[in-house]
Design goal:
Blueprint: H1 2-5, H2 16-21, H3 24-32, H4 36-54, H5 65-87, H6 89-93, H7 96-103, H8 110-130, H9 141-144, H10 149-152, H11 155-158, H12 160-183, H13 190-220, E1 227-235, H14 240-265, E2 272-274, H15 300-307, E3 311-320, E4 325-333, E5 339-344, H16 361-371, E6 386-389, E7 397-398, H17 420-425, E8 429-432, E9 437-441, H18 451-459, E10 464-469, H19 477-494, E11 497-502, E12 508-510, E13 516-519, E14 526-534, H20 541-545, H21 548-575, H22 586-600, E15 621-629, E16 635-643
Parallel strand pairs: 1-2, 2-3, 9-10, 10-11
Antiparallel strand pairs: 1-14, 3-4, 4-5, 6-9, 7-8, 11-12, 12-13, 15-16
Helix pairs in contact: 3-12, 4-5, 5-8, 8-12, 8-21, 12-13
Length: 663
C-alpha cells in the first residue's frame, strides 16, 4: 500500500489518504513476528517491495539496470531488514503472558507504548535510508503526504520526520484499535483495555489537532518578499549523455534568447539565467578557451556576453590536475561570459557518480567487467554562496547602520576636533548595499532532497535555493515528480524559495509555504521567465536544531530498551522465584503430597485379579466367607482373601475413586 501512496503514473503527486492507512498491515505483522529472524524478513520484504514499485525507473540509468535498480534494491532491503530486527526488541518482550495480564487489566500503558514504538521505528527506518553515504530519501511516507500542505507545515519544526511520524501514528492507532476489538470479548477486564485505547486515541487526536492548527496558520499567513530575482529557467529536454553538449547548448541558447526577449519586451530585465545540470561536456577551467570558440556559429562566451546577463550552467570541473580528480559542478559566469568560479556537488550519487574504494583492484575489475563503467567523481570540499547585483538598481548606497558593530567608541582628536575617518563612516556607508544584491546557493541534482546539505547552504547566507538537475535519463514522469516532492520540503523547512531548473522536469518555483507558484510540463522543450520572490531570512526551529525530533524518538526507543531490560530481566524474574516450604499454600502442599503418593502406588492389577487399587500381601490377608461379584459379574461364594485396608493419599483435585472432583 505504501508504494501506491507515493507518486506514480496514476497519482503524479501521491495520495495522502492512502498514506494514512498504508502501514496498517505492517503494524499487525510487526507485532506478530515470532523472532528477530522473522522481523528481519518482514521488513526486508516491505522495503524491497516499496523500492521496486516506486523506483522502478532506476532501471533506465544508462543501461545499467541490474546494477542501479538491483544493487540499490538489495541495499535498501538489507537496511530495512536490519531496522526491522532492531525494532523487534520490544515485540520480543511482549509475550503471551504480558498480553494475558493486559487483558486482565494490568499494564494499560502497553497500548500507547506499542503505538509510539512502531511509529518511532518507522521514523528510524526512513531516517536510516535518508542519511549517510548510501542515502536514498525516496519511497517515504513524507512523500505520500505532499499534497496535504496543512500537515506538512510542521516540517519547519520537525523536518520531514514529524510528517512521517504523524502518518505512521495514524496507521498504528487504527491497527491497534482493530486488534483490541478482537481481544475485548475474551478479555477479563475489557473496560480497562478499552479505556487505555481511548486515552491513546485522544492523545493522538490532540497531537494531530495541534499540528493542523499550526499548519493552517503557517499556510495562510501573508508573506511579503523583500526582493525579487528576475530569472530565466531553461528546460531544454535534451539528455546530454545521449546527444552531447552541442545539442544541449544549441537548444538552450535558442530557448534563452526567446525568453530574454519576451521579458525585455515587457520591461523586465533578467538578473540570472539558469541552465540545468550536465549541459557542458568539457571540463573547466581548462575549457575556458574551448568555449570561447565553441559552438562555431556563436561561442558560448560570446552568447552570454550578448545576452549581458550572469549565467549558472551545469558542467564538470577539474579540481586536482595532478591526481585527475573531477567534480560535478554549477559553473558561474558573469555578464561578459567570463568564468567566475563554481560550486561542486558534495553529496554524490553512490555507485553512479562516486564508487567507494574505486582504487581497489577488485572494485575496478567488478565495475569495469561486470557493471560496465569505472569513472568516479570527487565530492566538493566547500559550500559556496553566489552573489549577484540586482539589475536596474537605482540607489545602491548602503544604509548608515548597515554592517555596524554592536558596540563602538566615537572619540575626538586630542585637540578636540573630529576624527575624519570616524565621521565619514557616519556620513556615508562605503560598503555594498545588501538590498542591492541577491545571495543564492545551487544544490545540484538530488542534493535538494538532503537537509544536511541544504542546512549548510542556508547557514552561509543563502536567500534562495536554485537547484539544477538532470533527470532526463529516467524517461518516466514519476521519477521527475518524486524528485520534486522530496525537494519541496526544503522550502518549508527553511521558509525560503526553492527554484528548480531541470533539463526534463519537474521545473518549478516553490514558495516558503510549499506552494508551487510557477512550473513547466515535464519532458517538454520550453523555458520560463519569472520574477522569483525572495523573502527575509528567518531562523526556523529546524534550521537551528536539525533532526532533533528524530533524535528525540531514538531517545524514547533507547529509554524503552533500558526499561524493558530492567523490567523483564531483573524485576519480573524476582517475582517468580519459587517460594520456600513455609511460604507454600495448602493447595501447593496438597499437590506435592499427591504427586508423591502417585509415585509410590503399585501398578494397577487386571480386573480378573483384583478390583482393589492396591496389591494383596500374604501376611495381611484373612479368610472371609462372603459373597462377591467376580470381574465378569458372576456371583460366587467361598473364602476370599481380603487385604487389610491401607491409607491411600488422594491427589489434590481428585476424589477417592481417582476421578477429578469439582471445586
Amino acid at each position: 500500500m505504501e508504494a501506491a501512496a507515493i507518486s506514480n503514473k496514476l497519482l503524479p503527486f501521491g495520495s495522502p489518504f492512502l498514506g494514512l492507512f498504508c502501514l496498517i498491515p505492517m503494524y499487525g505483522i510487526f507485532y506478530k513476528a515470532k523472532n528477530y529472524r522473522q522481523a528481519f524478513f518482514f521488513f526486508l520484504v516491505q522495503s524491497l517491495t516499496v523500492h521496486l514499485l516506486s523506483s522502478y525507473w532506476l532501471a533506465n540509468f544508462r543501461g545499467f539496470a541490474i546494477f542501479t535498480l538491483g544493487a540499490s534494491a538489495f541495499g535498501t532491503a538489507l537496511e530495512g531488514g536490519l531496522c526491522g530486527a532492531v525494532s523487534h526488541f520490544l515485540p520480543a518482550q511482549l509475550n503471551k503472558k504480558n498480553l494475558l495480564e493486559e487483558d486482565g487489566g494490568r499494564h494499560p500503558h502497553y497500548v500507547w507504548i506499542r503505538i509510539i514504538w512502531f511509529s518511532a521505528s518507522w521514523v528510524m527506518w526512513e531516517w536510516m535510508k535518508s542519511t549517510g553515504f548510501l542515502a536514498y530519501p525516496w519511497g517515504t511516507l513524507s512523500m505520500a503526504a505532499y499534497r496535504w500542505k496543512l500537515i506538512t507545515q510542521i516540517a519547519d519544526i520537525t523536518g520531514v520526520w514529524g510528517v512521517t511520524f504523524l502518518f505512521a501514528l495514524f496507521s498504528a492507532l487504527i491497527a491497534e484499535g482493530y486488534g483490541i476489538m478482537e481481544r475485548i470479548p475474551r478479555a477479563q477486564n475489557n473496560i480497562v483495555m478499552a479505556e487505555s485505547f481511548v486515552s491513546s486515541a485522544k492523545t493522538a487526536g490532540i497531537f494531530f489537532a495541534i499540528c493542523l492548527v499550526y499548519g493552517i496558520f503557517q499556510y495562510v499567513v501573508p508573506r511579503t518578499p523583500v526582493k525579487t530575482l528576475n530569472t530565466v529557467l531553461v528546460q531544454q529536454n535534451v539528455d546530454p549523455w545521449e546527444s552531447g553538449d552541442a545539442a544541449s547548448i544549441a537548444v538552450s541558447k535558442k530557448l534563452t534568447e526567446q525568453q530574454v526577449n519576451l521579458m525585455r519586451d515587457i520591461g523586465m530585465e533578467p538578473d540570472l539565467v539558469l541552465w540545468s545540470e550536465g549541459v557542458l561536456g568539457y571540463t573547466y577551467p581548462s575549457a575556458i578557451q574551448f568555449y570561447r570558440e565553441f559552438p562555431q556559429d556563436e561561442s558560448l562566451t560570446a552568447f552570454i556576453a550578448r545576452m549581458d546577463i550572469p549565467f549558472v550552467i551545469g558542467g564538470r570541473t577539474l579540481v586536482d590536475h595532478n591526481r585527475q580528480l573531477f567534480s560535478n559542478s554549477a559553473i558561474f559566469f558573469d555578464r561578459n561570459g567570463d568564468y567566475a568560479g563554481f560550486y561542486s556537488k558534495k553529496h554524490l550519487v553512490p555507485f553512479a557518480e562516486r564508487i567507494p574504494w574505486a582504487e581497489n583492484p577488485l572494485m575496478k575489475f567488478f565495475m569495469g567487467k561486470v557493471v560496465g563503467f569505472t569513472s568516479t567523481l570527487t565530492p566538493g570540499n566547500q559550500y559556496v554562496l553566489f552573489k549577484i547585483p540586482k539589475s536596474n538598481q537605482g540607489n545602491t548606497k548602503a544604509a548608515l547602520w548597515s554592517n555596524l558593530p554592536p558596540e563602538t567608541t566615537i572619540a575626538l582628536e586630542p585637540d578636540g576636533t573630529i576624527n575624519k575617518d570616524t565621521a565619514s563612516r557616519y556620513t556615508e556607508n562605503p560598503g555594498y548595499n545588501p538590498d542591492s544584491y541577491i545571495s543564492f546557493t545551487t544544490p545540484i541534482c538530488f542534493e535538494d532532497a538532503f537537509s544536511d546539505v541544504c542546512s549548510q547552504l542556508y547557514r552561509i547566507g543563502s536567500e534562495v535555493f536554485l537547484n539544477i538537475t538532470n533527470d532526463s535519463w529516467s524517461k518516466e514522469p514519476p521519477a521527475e515528480y518524486q524528485h520534486f516532492i522530496a525537494a519541496s520540503y526544503r522550502a518549508i523547512e527553511y521558509r525560503t524559495t526553492l527554484v528548480r531548473c531541470t533539463n526534463s522536469g519537474y521545473s518549478a518555483i516553490v514558495d516558503p509555504s510549499g506552494r508551487v507558484i510557477m512550473d513547466l510540463p515535464v519532458f517538454t522543450e520550453t523555458a520560463l521567465g519569472f520574477k522569483v520572490p525572495v523573502y527575509e531570512r528567518k531562523k526556523t526551529v529546524y534550521s537551528m536544531m536539525g533532526d532533533w525530533f528524530a533524535y528525540l524518538l531514538f531517545a524514547f526507543m533507547g529509554s524503552v530498551f533500558v526499561w524493558s531490560t530492567v523490567f523483564f530481566y531483573i524485576i519480573e524474574p524476582k517475582k517468580t522465584v519459587p517460594a520456600t516450604e513455609k511460604e507454600k499454600t495448602d493447595d501447593e502442599r496438597e499437590d506435592a503430597a499427591g504427586r508423591s503418593s502417585e509415585n509410590d502406588t503399585p501398578p494397577a492389577l487386571s480386573t480378573e485379579q483384583s478390583s482393589a487399587p492396591w496389591e494383596d500381601s500374604p501376611e495381611e490377608t484373612s479368610d472371609v466367607e462372603d459373597n462377591v461379584f467376580t470381574a465378569k459379574g458372576n456371583m460366587k461364594s467361598g473364602p476370599v482373601h481380603t487385604a487389610r485396608p491401607k491409607t491411600i493419599a488422594v491427589p489434590s483435585g481428585k476424589n477417592s475413586t481417582g476421578t477429578k472432583k469439582r471445586r
